[in-house]
Amino acid sequence: MAASEHIVGRGIGNKLILFTVVLVAVIWMLPIAWAVILSFKSNAELMISTGSAFHPPYTIKNYADIFQTSGVFRWLWNSTVVSVGVTAGILILSSLAGYGFARAEFKGRDVIFVLVLLGLAVPEQAVIIARHQMFSDLKMHNTYPAIILPGLSSAFGVFLMTQYFKAIPKDIDEAAMLDNASRFKIFWKVLLPLTIPAQATLGIFSFLGAWNDYLWPLISATKPEMFTITVGIASTQTNFAQSEGLGFLMAQAVFAGLPVFIVYLFFQKYIVRAVAGAAIS
Amino acid sequence: MTDVTLSSGKATARPRRPSGASIGPRWTNALFVAPYLVFYLVLLVYPLFKGIWMSMLQSDMFDDTSKFSGLANYTRLFNDKVFIGTVWNTTLFVLMTVPVFVVIGLLLALALNRSDRTAATLRAIFFGTSVMSVTIVTIIWQMMYMPDNGAINGVMRFLGLQPIPFITSSSLALVAIAICTIWWIIGLPMMLFLAALQQIPGELYEAAALDNASRSRSFWSITLPSIKRTLLVVIIFEIVAQFQLFGQAWLLTRGGPNNASRPIVLFIYEQGFRAWNLGYAAAASEVLFVIMAIAALVQFFVSRKRVEG
Amino acid sequence: MQVSSIELDSVSKRFGSVEVISELSLTIHSGEFIAFLGPSGCGKSTLLRMIAGLETVNAGEIRIGGERVDHLPPGARGVAMVFQHYALYPHMTVFDNLAFGLKNIGTSKDEIGRRIEEAARILEISHLLQRKPGQLSGGQRQRVAIGRALVKDPKAYLFDEPLSNLDAALRVRTRVELARLHQQVRATTIFVTHDQVEAMTLASRIVVMNARKVEQVGTPMDIYGRPATEFVARFVGSPAMNFLAAQIRDRGGLASAVLGDGSVIDTDVPVTALPAGGELRVGIRAEAIRARPDGALPGQVEVVERLGDRTHLHVRLMDGSTIVAEDKGASQVKPGDAIRLAVEGATAHLFDADGLAYHARQ
């Protein structure tokens, strides 16, 4: 790809453009930088003027206070449970179903597959009210299952895994059949290990999606001890015009954003590759 | 050389009856898709139809019953000024954001389509914002937009200029949400375009260079046509996504001032989970579904014609 | 396990509404090395896969060792297959690849170890047992694929174009090794290929197929010397057989072919066997046409192909048709030379309009 940088048109490749983009990137990060700086100032000073953020004194009291009074830890724990649950559920269900649609023949398979694909077109809002009613009737709100289960009905994972299974050459299945492997053994021992890249992609997508989900946890987890991190942080923004407790607010937000930030730092290459991979299919 | 037989020393028959898989349809194979199908039917298909049913009920808050009322909720919706306003707001929002997503996303992808470390870091920065949750993003932007203490207005005052009433002005509220949204999710269109650009074979550009094509000529005649499919995907995807605007509006402006920035989903949320008019909210959600489907289909067919024509 | 015979009894196969194989019957003897030869799409792979159980059989029976198998799953038929692209399990070591099938039927660990050790020794892959397929060369992967079949000690070995993915030099070497292996193991083997050299050199019998029909079943020399149809005559032997339009004259009970320019080729084909009237063509291989100053056929040399041990001369005859003749390796003939060709009519065949062949009396 480096050679074609000198070729016209592939990317607008000269230094001026790059410099402009760097400038834009710096400006892009300013809102985050601003929020972080605010988190290191005392609430009292900020109440007077947020301009005080530009000069010392800075303090870590806000972060210390998190350990005392904030529900952030509880919320982070809830989000972890929910996200892990959703991710595990999706990986298991989608892998099984993907293999079923791609390789295991049964009557009506192709019709059912198309019907499942249609599910991709259904937006969350069209089903959310009915779902809420269903869980209300079962008195299941404010439980982990209530937050986790709806996410498992997404057709995206099934679509992804089916495509991936289909791409594996069929002669491996045939060799395994001649090797006397049962259907399940072909799935479990032969094909599934070959889908690890797709599992990673799907796992990352599902985890991030569940972690950042807002609407469903908002209406299902109404008790503060069941809040996920998104709902919890939102609950701290009681009045957008208020300015007391600003430093603490920011510290909470920064703290809440740390897990995803760390995950992104470490797995950024994989996440980017996952998105690019999904984009091509 | 001695005759080699692998059966030497093995007088017994096969250890166990073989029970391997066969080709051809078996009903037992359906067991692979059964677990997922259960979730699909119970938590997606059933709620979909139940929602339609609910949209045709009117509940009486006082005696906790609901009665079938046909299309009454829908009639009420079409006469509801607030609801019409939300449809208008949401459409405006989509028209504001989608072109920007496409243009800026493509520009970034073009500028960063190189293999050095700087570009990789820049790509990570622009994509990084999209892994944050909506609640954190809105907190950050509240700090930018606040009328007195916000960063933007602080700078304005420092420069001696008038402060901009982002979230307190009915004309600017939607714009404020749009800017915040674009900052948040620009990474995704950028990535999609990047992937498409990298699929273009280098030989096309080499041939164009040999044909003395200028840089802009190459762009319009080679780059753009090659990414047509991705362009369509990005447009449809963003239309569908931005029609579902909720979190940013709820958390930044609460839909105000004066319903100026209330999107459809916020209407649904407030009707369904604050006012507990479930039937009414369900009807609104069905209308949203239809609008989104129409918008996506229209875009799809318009682009199809443009590709062929 | 005992190596077994394989019988195909009026076997038919349909894909949708298209009948691909039609009432095909064939007996493969125990321990025989037989080749299914033909161009792509002729049905040879389909036939092989039907025997393996990877394709359904719509009518007829398949019997292995006398037992009916066409309703059994692939694993239960006692056959082993070597795939064109080897189909090794990429994430398992070579050892695990070989052990997989044996583990599935509950073979003891000792037995598995013993069999793998022996197969690895025969195929010279003992040093590769802990590697994964991705770390192996094409030739090594192919041996592992063969090893996977060997350890099962099957009733029959099925090879689906196993040499197609190897480069030319490796292909020749592997051919010889396969021949040696068959002499050691003496198992019933079906070898599917589109390469007539492979079929001729390896098999004791060849089934020549074209457009899903069997054109001929016979030993390599039968196929070569007495091809049943024009297709077989063209497909086997390099360069391809020459075909010339001719009028037939009776020469005391034997046919003489009169070519367009008047020259005559005396064949040993009995006139009585030939169909009355109609167009006939005479088929002669290049090695039966030599350049000689007293040859009966005049012509002009167009292309000279030197192969070292012999030379192929592409000659245009007086009536405009071209034939390929053979000359010695040190031939001095140049393109453009006028030349006279002598034809050995005793080995000539005659072909009718339907492609049926008529041979010299034995």
Commentary on this structure:
The complex is a heterotrimer of chains A (281), B (309) and C (362). Chain A has helices spanning 15-39, 43-48, 61-69, 72-102, 109-118, 125-137, 144-148, 156-166, 170-178, 183-191, 196-212, 215-220, 229-235, 246-280. By secondary structure, chain A is mostly helical. Chain A folds into two domains: 3-64, no CATH class; 70-235, MetI-like fold (Orthogonal Bundle). In chain A, helix 8 (156-166) packs antiparallel against helix 11 (196-212) and helix 9 crosses helix 10. Chain A is globular, with a radius of gyration of 24 Å. Mean pLDDT of chain A is 86; it is low at 1-11. Chain B is globular, with a radius of gyration of 28 Å. Chain B is mainly alpha-helical and 309 residues long. Chain B has a domain at 90-264: MetI-like (MetI-like fold, Orthogonal Bundle), CATH 1.10.3720.10. Chain B has helices spanning 34-54, 72-78, 81-111, 117-128, 134-145, 151-158, 173-185, 187-199, 202-210, 215-226, 228-243, 247-252, 264-273, 278-308; strands at residues 57-60, 65-68. Helices cover 65% and strands 3% of the residues of chain B. In chain B, helix 3 crosses helix 8 and helix 3 runs antiparallel to helix 11. The longest helix of chain B has 31 residues, at 81-111. Chain B has a two-stranded antiparallel sheet with strand order 1-2. With 362 residues, chain C is an alpha+beta fold. A six-stranded mixed beta sheet of chain C has the order 6-7-8-3-9-10, with helices on both faces. In chain C, strands 13-12-11-14-20-21 form a six-stranded antiparallel beta sheet. In chain C, strand 9 (205-210) and strand 10 form a beta hairpin. Chain C is 23% helix and 35% strand. Chain C folds into two domains: 6-235, Rossmann fold, CATH 3.40.50; 242-358, Nucleic acid-binding proteins (OB fold (Dihydrolipoamide Acetyltransferase, E2P)). Chain C is elongated and about 75 Å long.
